[in-house]
Amino acid sequence: MRVFRILSVLVIILVGAYALSMYYFVDESKSFTIEKEIDYPVEKVFSQFNNLQNFTRWNNFFSSSPSIDIDYYTPYEGQGSSISYVDPKNETDGEMFIRYENPGKTLRYQLFEDRNENPTLVDVKFKSLSPQKTSITWRVHTPKLSLFRRVENFWTEDRFADNIDKSMAKLKNVLGNKVEKDNQLASIKYDSIMVEKDESQLLLGVNVSASNKKDALYKNIVMNYNKVYNYVTMDLGKKDDEFGYAVLITDADNYKDKEVSYFIGIPLSNKTGVTDNNFSFRTINATENYVMYYKGTYAGRVKAIQQLIQQAKKDEMRSGDIRQMFIERPLDDQEVNMKLSLSVYK
Q1: Which of 141, 160, 185 corresponds to the end of one domain?
Q2: Residues 155 and 252 in one domain
Q3: Residue 253's CATH number
Q4: Which pLDDT belongs to residue 339?
Q5: I need a surface site. Which of 36, 48, 289, 339 has the fewest CB within 10 A?
Q6: Is the previous residue joined to 131 through a cis bond, with omega within 30 degrees of 0?
Q7: What are phi and psi of 177, to 5 degrees?
């Protein structure tokens, strides 16, 4: 009995000491500022923040959990837009609102977590440092915590900073693919041979052998494109603005063969876990290419490929594989819009 009393007194003393230390030395709420820079223009960056459908794709708070379920409410962007979320695996839920917007300059978010009546307030300021660089500043004010929960404030800022670091990496991937697609579409000049240098790429796709009779090859390409696209978007959970255009790689002159072997894949920023053995990764090394944009029937691409091969021979260049990048999704019984790239070297 005496031991029990002593332990009870010790517990009371420890609890009291904890409560006093929390009361005098730890703030009931926390405010801090985090600044980052990103190499994209402010108008493209801002649209990723004020549209909550865009925001949840790359923000690590929402995108890191495969079990999270998000509902979006109109308006879907700008002041007044909101979402609610439930994550059964992590046993969390909440709501998020955009309470204020100064287009291209500032946003104010309110985040209510786990039925907490007091929100986390996040003010985000955007500043153009140059036509291709933007400064982003987060000013965060956390809700008041009870005396016995104030210890959480010791790691709140670190946790928030880690989330922003991971989010910025994902945002760079999203904007990189989006800007690249926009630039390619804006610069298209059909049926002219150009010289370009391509950086290395990582593709996830399938190796295929198919008949080259009539339309059989193109139908096979459409089928395997859909197979790869569905795996990347559904099984891997990637969004369209997280990856680039699909690329088909094959021998430059195999259009004359009865059977054609090719690899068709979608570029990803890094390797992810692939559980289906039908899919594999392939790295394309940086190369110099003779390039031609082509639009028409898939069979009609042969003439464009021949022009690229003839130009390489004329310039006394050796040639390698031909890459067919589908700028528009290939569909049955429709014309293709593609970029043909013949790798060349001395």
Answers
A1: 185
A2: no
A3: 3.20.80.10
A4: 93
A5: 36
A6: no
A7: -70, -40
Tell me whether residue 213 is exposed, middle or buried, using C-beta atoms within 10 angstroms of its C-beta: 0 to 12, 13 to 18, 19 or more.
exposed
Say yes or no: 126 and 98 in one domain.
yes
**Is the dihedral angle over the CA atoms 265, 277, 58, 172 positive or is it negative?**
negative
Task: List average pLDDT for each run of 10 residues in the chain, which is 346 residues long.
Answer: 58 49 52 90 92 88 84 86 89 90 94 80 94 92 61 63 89 78 72 85 93 89 94 84 88 87 91 85 90 92 93 90 93 92 90
For position 324, what pLDDT does the model report?
Answer: 96
Residues 218 and 70 in one domain: no
Instruction: Using the structure block, give the residue that is written with the tokens 């690229």.
Output: 308
The helix-helix angle for 42-50 and 153-186 (nearest 10°) equals: 120
Tell me the sheet residues that pair with 259.
Answer: 211
Supply the range of the domain harboring residue 102. Answer: 26-185
**DSSP string covering 53-102, please?**
HHHHHH-HHHHT-TT-EEEEESS-BSTT-EEEEEETTTTEEEEEEEEEEE
**What pLDDT does 24 receive?**
40
pLDDT at 3: 55
User: Tokens 């079990």 map to which residue?
Assistant: 67
Residue 177 and residue 230 in one domain: no
Report if residue 15 sits inside a domain: no
Q: Which of 180, 166, 248, 170 is nearest to 210 (CA)?
A: 248
Instruction: Check whether residue 232 and residue 108 sit in a common domain.
Output: no
* Domain identity same for 176 and 311: no
**Assigned domain for 3 exists:** no
